[in-house]
């Protein structure tokens, strides 16, 4: 192997000495894409809402302030594609469609809740840090 090149393992198995910077380059590894999808603001809200119960599209849209119909559709499709959300269509007129978390989606809930708790716990400190940053930027301008 040439000096300065990375070995590209064929899988993403976590090891005790994994390199987080390899998430973008490991062959067949989609960790970065999955993290981008799960961690976006709309996906986190959908996952959190579906923790409580099965919901229909219109219920989800009403519950998520600021989301467009198109963005909710895209988010639900991506979460369904990744096996996190299940879409059930009932043969009625008009068709009834419901969304719920899959077992894989349910396994994310502790992580999502921990992230929300961390954010709530630290929001004042983060606001203070932002104010300090802005003050430094204004002083140097």
Search tags:
141 residues, mainly alpha, Arc Repressor Mutant, subunit A
Can you put this structure into words, describing what you see?
It is a single chain. This protein has about 140 residues and is mainly alpha-helical. It has a single domain (about 20-140), classed as Winged helix-like DNA-binding domain superfamily/Winged helix DNA-binding domain (Arc Repressor Mutant, subunit A), CATH 1.10.10. About 55% of the residues lie in helices and about 10% in strands. The chain has six helices and three strands; from the N terminus they run ααβααββαα. Strands 1-3-2 form a three-stranded antiparallel β-sheet. A hairpin with a 5-residue loop joins strand 2 (about 85-90) and strand 3. The longest helix is centred in the last third of the chain and has 32 residues, at about 110-140.
Number of strands: 3
State Rg. 20 Å
Unreliable segments of 5+ consecutive residues: 1-10
Structural class: mainly alpha
Beta-strand level of the residues, as a percent range?
Answer: 5-15%
Task: Enumerate how many helices there are, as a single number.
Answer: 6
| CATH topology description | Arc Repressor Mutant, subunit A
Largest sheet: 3 strands, antiparallel
CATH class: Mainly Alpha
Mean pLDDT: 84
CATH architecture: Orthogonal Bundle
What is the count of distinct domains? Answer: 1
In whole angstroms, how far apart are the ends? 48 Å
């Amino acid at each position: 192997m040439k000096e300065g090149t990375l070995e590209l393992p064929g899988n993403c198995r976590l090891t005790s000495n994994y390199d987080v910077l390899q998430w973008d380059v490991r062959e067949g590894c989609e960790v970065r894409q999955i993290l981008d999808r799960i961690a976006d603001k709309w996906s986190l809200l959908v996952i959190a809402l579906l923790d409580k119960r099965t919901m229909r599209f219109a219920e989800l849209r009403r519950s998520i302030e600021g989301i467009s119909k198109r963005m909710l559709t895209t988010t639900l499709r991506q979460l369904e594609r990744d096996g996190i959300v299940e879409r059930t269509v009932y043969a009625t007129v008009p068709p009834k469609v419901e969304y719920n978390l899959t077992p894989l989606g349910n396994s994310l809930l502790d992580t999502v809740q921990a992230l929300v708790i961390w954010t709530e716990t630290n929001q004042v400190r983060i606001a203070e840090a932002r104010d300090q940053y802005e003050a430094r930027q204004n002083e140097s301008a």
